[in-house]
Amino acid sequence: MTTISIRLDDDMKRELDEMCDEMGMNITTFFMIYAKKALRDRRIPFDIVAPIDPFYS
């Protein structure tokens, strides 16, 4: 097993800690679930889009 460091804003970490706690898990488990889903589906588990530039519309 390896270790990955992630930088988060203090407020974001606190909110993520609270959300994970409400679900009965910790942040490590949250990221493990996220990584396993991404690998299983071979895609990021949500859409990432750039805002449409009105110049090209």
Automatic annotation (TrEMBL):
InterPro entries with a match to the protein in the record: Arc_rbn_hlx_hlx, RelB/DinJ, Ribbon_hlx_hlx
GO biological process: regulation of DNA-templated transcription
SUPFAM superfamilies registered for this protein in UniProt: Ribbon-helix-helix
Gene3D superfamilies (alphabetical): Met repressor-like
Coiled-coil zones: none
Superkingdom of the source species: Bacteria
Name of the protein in its database record: Type II toxin-antitoxin system RelB/DinJ family antitoxin
